[in-house]
Specification:
ARM-type_fold, Ataxin-10 homolog, mainly alpha, 201 residues, two-stranded antiparallel sheet, cell division
Length: 201
C-alpha cells in the first residue's frame, strides 16, 4: 500500500523544464525503438535491438519499466487530469485548485509545461513490453497494470492519453494469462457520470 500523497508546499520553477526534457527524451527513445524494430524486420537480425537494450538497462537495481511505472503513478497523483476544462483527481472526483496545483492547459502563456508527459510515458511503456512476456511480468510485479488502467481516461493536458493507455494495456495482456487474471480480478467500484467524473457506488 502506498502512503497518501501530499503535494509539496512549493514547486521548483525548473520542474516544467524537466518535464519538457523528459517528454523529448521519451519521444527519442520511442523513435529509436520503433526504427530499430522496423530495421530488424527488413535486415539481418542484430545482436541486440533497441527494445532489448532499454528493457535490460538498469540503474540502482531499477529497470526502465519499473521507473516508468513509478513515475506514472506519481504523476497521476501530482497532476490532476483535466477533463472539460476542470481538474479531476486520480480517484475521479473533481479537484479544487490549490496554490501548488497547475491550473492551465496547453502551450500558451502561463502553461505549466506538463503537457503530453503522461501520454508519452505510457506510450513508451507499451512499446517496451510489446511481445516480451518477461517485461510484461515485470510491469505486473511493480503494479504497472493498475497504473495503466488508471490512465485509460480523457485528459486535456495529454491528448490521446486514453488511446495510448488502452494500447499499452493490450500489450501488457497479450499472451500473458497472469496479467489477464489481474485485470479480471479488478471490479468497478463506481460509474462515470454525464460530466465524465467517476462516482463511487
Amino acid at each position: 500500500m502506498h502512503a497518501a500523497f501530499e503535494p509539496p508546499s512549493s514547486l521548483d520553477v525548473m520542474l516544467p523544464k524537466v518535464s519538457e526534457a523528459l517528454v523529448l527524451v521519451t519521444q527519442c527513445i520511442v523513435t529509436i525503438t520503433l526504427e530499430s524494430a522496423d530495421m530488424d524486420a527488413h535486415a539481418a537480425v542484430l545482436e541486440q535491438n533497441s527494445q532489448d537494450f532499454f528493457n535490460e538497462a538498469t540503474f540502482a537495481d531499477h529497470g526502465i519499466v519499473e521507473s516508468l511505472t513509478e513515475l506514472l503513478r506519481l504523476l497521476d497523483l501530482f497532476l490532476p487530469r483535466i477533463n472539460f476544462g476542470k481538474p479531476v483527481r486520480a480517484d475521479g472526483r473533481a479537484a479544487l485548485p490549490t496554490p501548488t496545483q497547475p491550473q492551465d492547459v496547453g502551450d500558451g502563456p502561463g502553461s505549466t509545461g506538463f503537457a503530453y508527459l503522461k501520454r508519452d510515458l505510457v506510450r513508451l511503456l507499451g512499446i517496451l513490453c510489446h511481445g516480451i512476456k518477461a517485461v510484461q511480468d515485470r510491469a505486473r510485479l511493480c503494479g504497472g497494470i493498475e497504473v495503466v488502467m488508471n490512465l485509460c481516461v480523457i485528459d486535456e493536458r495529454n491528448p490521446y492519453l486514453r488511446e495510448h493507455a488502452i494500447f499499452t494495456l493490450h500489450n501488457l495482456l497479450q499472451g500473458n494469462p497472469e496479467n489477464q487474471a489481474v485485470v479480471e480480478a479488478i471490479k468497478p467500484s463506481g460509474k462515470w457520470d454525464e460530466n465524465g467524473v467517476w462516482q463511487e457506488t
